[in-house]
Amino acid sequence: MATMTPETLVYKRPLAFTDTPTHYCPGCTHGTAHRLVAEVLDEMNLVGRTIGVAPVGCAVFAYNYFQTDFVEAPHGRAPAMATGIKRCLPDRIVFTYQGDGDLASIGTGEIIHAAARGENITVIFINNANFGMTGGQMAPTTLPGQKTTSSPNGRDVELQGYPIRVAEMLATLDGAGYIVRRSLHNPTNIRKAKKAIRTAFETQVRGLGFSLVELLSTCPSNWNLTPVESLTWLEEHMLPYYPLGDFKVAPSITAAKI
User: Fold this and answer.
1) Is the pTM of this model over 0.90?
2) Is CB count within 10 Å lower at the N or C end of the chain?
3) Which CATH number fits domain 30-255: 3.30.300.30, 3.30.450.20, 3.40.50.970, 2.60.120.10?
4) pLDDT per position as a tens digit, 101-121
């Protein structure tokens, strides 16, 4: 058996990660998203100057996993807290890590106005189409007909309205600089997600304004699927409603050749 050496080691814990067991459910892609952020912070040498903001939700314990300063915001208020931190400490890299039950529900006003103001912060937005932490209730991103603990017969759009496409909505705002949607359901798309996360952080480093990366994510526990089944469900059901792509890339970002 070959001995593993530093020259042959190709997979290790990012320096931006702490050595902490995960609290996420098996198959949840929150952990994948965390690792991508950590790898980007390592590669850009930003760990020592980064401040993360996590609100209430599955990501509430994000501060356990990153070797960066971190603060916890009230439910939905991470963009407001990030705005205050960035304006007081403009030399720091500030990012929020938010789920759909947080950002697209109680935090809708905060995220819209942060984008409209063009705040120079980065948002990592996890869309798994339900309120994951509190038991799988219907969220603003729950698909039409999707069953949840609070919509056991499926989301009825005549009663509960249609899902909110956050990326498309924010892309209409003049203050938004970089707004994209990626997915975490297979290796190819995970690599594309990492590239987008890096571009979002580079947008902030260059002072080019508000950036958000929406990541379609799995929630096997609340979807009542196995981890493998949940990946297939995401691909077959979420991708048609939430198409992947770049929804706003400001000319200044393109000109910077990021």
Assistant:
1) yes
2) N
3) 3.40.50.970
4) 999 999 999 999 999 999 999
